[in-house]
Amino acid sequence: MKEFDNAAKMLCPEISGVLLKIAENKKRSIQEIRLRSGKPVALSSGTETLYVCGDGAIVYSPERAFRCTRRHIYDTFRQLCDYSLYSRQDEIKNGFITVKGGHRVGLCGTAALKDGQISAVTDITSLNVRISRRLYGISEPLLSKMLPLTGGFLIVGAPSTGKTTLLRDIAFRISGGVNCRAMRTSVIDERGEISGGFSEESGHDLGLSDVLRGYPKSEGIMQAIRSLSPQVIICDEVGNADDCRGIAEGANAGAYMIGTIHAPSWDDLMKRRQAKELLGTGAFSHAVILSSSDKPGEVREIREV
Q1: Minimal CA–CA distance to 173: which of 137, 199, 203?
Q2: Cα 250–Cα 256–Cα 259 angle in degrees, nearest 5
C-alpha cells in the first residue's frame, strides 16, 4: 500500500486525491495507474482493468468513473518531471521516465523527428504509471533451486510478471548473504528502476550491492569489472547488441550474470534473433520462465540453456 500511495502522491492533486481514497485492501493488487486525456482513470490489477470513482470506489465499468482532463495530464506530467522537462528529454524521447521510488511512467504523445530519429515527444495525451514494489522474500523459492550458483540465469516474462521485483530481492539476498553465501554483487541500474531512483534516500533496499545508476548496461558491466571485482552482476531488460557484448564480457571475466528479458514463453523467446544471440554468449546456464501478471514473481518453469 505504501508504494501505491507514494506513486499516487506524485500525480496532480485532483487525481491523487481520488486515488488516495481507494480502500487499503484494493491498493495492494493495483499494478498500474493509467491516465488518458478525456477518459476515465483506469487501474490494472493483474489481468483485470478497473476504474475509480470520485469517492475512491472501485468499479468494473467506466460510466461512473472519474475522468482525467487534458489539464490533469499537463499538470501531472510537469510534476513528474520536477517542472524541468528539458532535464528529462533523453528519457522522454524514449517514451518513459523513471521517478522517485522506481516507478516507471510510460508516455504517449506526438513524436518529433530529426534525421529520421525521435528527438522529442510532445503533446502528451496518456500516462501509464507502473507501480514499483519491494517484496522481501519473493525470490526465496527461486533461489532455493538456483543456489549455489553454477552459472548465470535469465528471467523471462511478459510485462508485469514481477521480473524487476524479483531482481531487487535477489540482489538483497545474494549480496547480504540472507540464507546463502554472501557474494560481491553489482547492480547495473540504467533507468533507476531496480534501486528505486537516483538518490539513496528514495531507493529500495538492495542489501550490500554496489549500484551503478544511469550507466548503459554494457558500460556499467565493464565499469563493475574494472573497479568492483563482482562475483554476480545483475541488470534488467537486456537483449540488444550492446547488452549482448557487455554480458559476454562480464561472463568472460568470471562473474555470474543475472538478467531479465521480455517474452511470454520459452517458445516466444526462441523466435527472437537477439534472444538467441544473448543465450549464445554462454552467460546464462538457465532460463527462468515466470507465470502470469496476476501472480508476480511466480516461476512457471526453469530450463537449462
Answers
A1: 137
A2: 85
* Virtual torsion, Cα 208, 173, 224, 228, nearest 10 deg: 50
Task: Name residues whose C-beta falls within 8 Å of residue 35's C-beta, 6 or more positions apart in sequence.
Answer: 11, 15, 41, 68, 72, 73, 76, 126, 127, 128, 129
Q: Is the pLDDT of residue 269 over 90?
A: yes
Any idea where the domains of the chain sit in the sequence? 2-130, 140-304
Rounded CA-CA distance 76/15 in Å is: 9
Q: What are the grid coordinates assigned to 251, written together?
A: 561472463
> What confidence category does residue 246 fall into, taking pLDDT thresholds of 50, 70 and 90?
very high
Contact 35, 41 (CB under 8 A): yes
Cβ-contact 158, 262 below 8 angstroms: yes
How crowded is the C-beta side of 185, counted as CA atoms within 13 Å? 26
Backbone phi and psi for residue 281, each to the nearest 5 degrees, phi listed first: -70, -20
Distance (Å, whole) CA 141 – CA 148: 13
2-130 is classed CATH 3.30.450: yes
Beta strands in the chain (DSSP E): 32-36, 42-45, 48-52, 58-59, 96-98, 104-114, 117-130, 152-157, 185-189, 210-213, 232-235, 256-262, 284-290, 299-304
CATH 3.40.50.300 fits 140-304, yes or no: yes
Neighbours of 168 (CB within 10 A): 31
Q: Which three cell numbers stand for residue 165?
A: 521485483
Q: Give dist(CA 246, CA 12) in Å, integer.
A: 40
* Residue 160 confidence class, pLDDT cut points 50, 70, 90: confident
Segment 59-84, tens digit of pLDDT: 999 999 999 999 999 999 999 998 88
